[in-house]
Amino acid sequence: MRVLMIGAPGSGKGTQGARIAAHFNVPHIGAGDILRGHVARRTAIGRAAQGHLDRGGLVPDEIVFDALGHALCEVDGGYILDGMPRTVPQAERLHQLAVDLGRLPQVALHLHADDEELTRRLLARGSTGGRSDDTAPVIRERLRRYHETTSPLKAWYALRGILLPVDAMRPAEHVGHEIVAALEALRPAALEEGFAI
Ligand code: AP5
Asked: Can you give the pTM of this predicted structure?
């Protein structure tokens, strides 16, 4: 199964991405996790990305594709790509890469939750020593960025016929069950077309 996860900060991309990846036994590639790994290891990519992560801004495309390129090129079958793309230009570039690799996504999963709930979840994580970008001002900036630059991806993938919207306002367990059931329903079609899932 080849899935892109789109959703605002706190919508559950990481939580559900891990669940889907385990269910379908495919790699979970988290853009934010990979970037934070570089920051922790103080690599050149990490040093270039850190300020953007701290401010809740987008890391420039060249750095993001550098950081994720290896994981994407290593994909040999299915994948769950979480947090990538975040802009229409990233989607266009990713599309070309997926065509070159013969690994076009089958589903672009969009997790929807309202800003009040997203803020509540992220502040709760921040208050228990979660992530350094889970502070009120940085959360506001991450949400602003999401609405401005990432949200248009819903229309982009809807036009291509692969958008799967999911109501992420419910408890994580319910959301996960619904996603797995919806993706399971796609398995026969994917097999017919000879996709590796
Ligand atoms: P990234 O790590 O992707 O962060 P994000 O998009 O801000 O999203 P989060 O990880 O905070 O939330 P999530 O949707 O994964 O939800 P989660 O499951 O964690 O990116 C971080 C930064 O990296 C970006 O700001 C940017 O700087 C940079 N970056 C990344 N990708 C980039 C790209 N492509 N281009 C440029 N820059 C990029 O859940 C959050 C919390 O909510 C958890 O505590 C969880 O337990 C809880 N929760 C989850 N689901 C539910 C539920 N249904 N009910 C109640 N609580 C829930």
From this structure: 0.94
The answer to whether the annotation marks 15 as part of a ligand binding site is: yes
Pocket around ligand 1 at a 6 A CB cut-off: 7, 9-15, 31-32, 35, 52-53, 56-59, 64, 83-86, 90, 121-122, 125, 142, 168, 171-172, 175
Does residue 163 sit in helix, strand or coil?
Answer: strand
Please tell me whether 90 is known to bind a ligand: yes
Each residue of 127-144: pLDDT tens digit? 997 788 999 999 999 999
131 is in an annotated binding site: yes
Q: What are the tens digits of pLDDT across the range 53-99?
A: 999 999 999 999 999 988 888 888 899 999 999 999 999 999 999 99
Gap from CA of 186 to ligand 1 centroid (Å)? 26
Question: What are the chain's domains?
Answer: 2-27+78-188 (3.40.50.300), 32-74 (no CATH)
Nearest CA to ligand 1 atom 8: 9
Per DSSP, what are the bridge partners of residue 81? 4, 29
- Which H helix or E strand runs over 23? helix 13-24
